[in-house]
């Protein structure tokens, strides 16, 4: 059946157009919309790793969602030639459908029709993609490993709603693997901020721990080994549970043995993400309600989609 494109210039609410789109969305489609609502922008490759198996079904389904105006896209300019991947953002019809499912309004979702344009021209869009890529790696591993689960992934905006101005992490996560689990705040570092400003954030995390009485490790995901060494020299005396790693997608990416806690002794091997909680035996690490494990561990946040479902 040919797909009729929902007009970009939708009025505030067009019941026929929204009903037409709603009749063609699957549960996985709604998951995609939810992720774009919370995490603002995801590339085609990131969405494939989270929800699909192969490029062709990914592009086909995203094309349908785009024609329905549930999602929209832009392609960043590449200074080195070649073609950047499509970057996907929640569309107007998608926001209407999510608002309807939540019994709320588009305004309450903080959605604006010019969202794609504002993200495309934002100097922070690259940072957002980097933060999301960290969790996409975890989600992809969880999809393909029965012993791994991404139990929570909260965006900067969601964190601000929960903890206000006490601390402003780039994201919050809960990861478990082989029966080991860790809750953490992520600081995705691009090298654009001075290390003095980076370390100044630690006071806010200390205030958050004092206020909530929940001690949560802070993970610094850094762009280079030099940056990591210099940061570690500045935070070696902190009482907060902190670990650092250099950004990589090799050997399990952020889930792999790339983490070094500030409590590490000379010559200590780097640790897998799920094992980091053992690095601070003197601290009673807590768990927020947002990271509570699902009642049925057989229903992970991400699952492998069959080729038949992908069509």
Structure report:
By secondary structure, the protein is α+β, with helices and mostly antiparallel strands. The protein contains 11 helices and 9 strands. The protein has helices spanning 15-22, 27-39, 44-51, 55-67, 92-101, 115-121, 125-144, 156-163, 195-212, 225-234, 307-310; strands spanning 42-43, 71-74, 87-90, 148-155, 171-177, 180-188, 218-222, 242-246, 260-261. The strands form 2 sheets. A 6-stranded mixed beta sheet has the order 4-5-6-7-8-9. A 3-stranded antiparallel beta sheet has the order 1-3-2. A hairpin with a 2-residue loop joins β5 and β6. α3 crosses α4 (55-67) and α3 (44-51) packs parallel to α7 (125-144).
Task: Give the beta-strand count.
Answer: 9
Form type: globular
Helix content: 25-40%
Written as H for each helix and E for each strand, in order along the chain, the element string is: HHEHHEEHHHEHEEHEHEEH
Strand content: 5-15%
- Can you count the helices? 11
Biggest sheet features: 6 strands, mixed
Mean pLDDT: 88
User: Would you identify the regions where 5 or more consecutive residues have pLDDT less than 50?
Assistant: 6-11, 291-300, 303-311
Structural class: alpha+beta
